[in-house]
Amino acid sequence: MNRVCSIFSQILQLIPRPEFETSVKEHKAERHARGFGSWTQFIAMLFCQLGHAQSLREITGGLAASEGKLRHLGVQEPPKRTTLSYANAHRPWQLYEGVFYKVLATCQAEAKSRKRKFRFKHKLLSLDSTVIPVCLSVFDWAQYKRTKGAVKLHMVLDHDGYLPSFAVITEGKTADITAARQMSFVAGTMLVFDRGYPDYDWWLELTRHKVDFVTRLKDNAEYGVVEKRETPEGSNILRDEVILLCSQQELGPIALLRRIEVWIEEKQETMVFVTNNMKLAASTIAAIYKERWQIELFFKALKQGLKIKTFVGTTENAVQTQIWTALIAILLVKYLQLKSTFGWSLSNLVALLRQQLFVYRDLWKWLNDPFQAPPALEGIHDGQMSLAFGS
What sections of the chain are H helices per DSSP? Predict the structure, then answer.
């Protein structure tokens, strides 16, 4: 007899219920709950993400249709649409931000055992943002342009396991550098970002905090060449120079940067990188910037696989709640991907999980061998049905 619970229930076991309830008390999330608990709200919003429900009606209807399977999730009865809507609008989204970082710690512990792509000891992080357009007349708090609204997700991706390690959600008009200035990074980190962060004072601040960075240098940047370094013969490295930006020339050695000019064969063009790291090979610096593409792939997987481009609530709190539960969902899926011996792509794992949420089978066996038939329930569907013919 198959005695495992549903795959959805086994995924939820990755979030210890006592820790969740501790977070609920910390944020006073159930001050006016009136019987509708935060755990039930979380189950509903996680079902929205993993089940790809398109509306509050689909969330509550989908859970109601599985009512016989909800008790083992810790849910006594499916939520009502108006009750869930009110909770999303008023229950503090910071609760789910806290849950996100607890799940992240579990994922990071698993990712530590994985082989790293680069030999250097620096922790490699990518910084970028993505814009999620919304209707300004409905989401009037999400100002972007005069007639357009948007929400912006600023994120740091940890390349050990490709995990989202930090996130800030703002209205669309918030500049990338404004969000970046509110972040702090551990000394010894290697941070890579694109040309959307052209604040030379912030670059200098990173250097003073012993944070290495790699980015693109804008074409109109004014600088002076302090030293020309030798480039490997026959390589695609055209120039390797130590420079000093004209706006920082009075600061001396601490403001020195390294400008690397590289020929990109695939694009048939020259790209110019800048870094404050003077030790790594120029080819490694170029490879680090190329690795930044992983955060773009992450944003693509997040938008295509989870419910993040449209929202089931219009208030800022509801939008924050939905995005944070999407980030929790992607962390859970990344953890399953790390633990599995099967060669899952992130998008394929999300798609197949959607079909298996309420199937009763062993999650870990399914992860490692997803195309094996589920174990038969004794006496139910493992026998041949008899056919009766009339005389």
Answer: 7-12, 17-26, 38-50, 56-65, 81-90, 94-111, 176-181, 200-208, 282-291, 293-305, 316-339, 346-356, 363-368
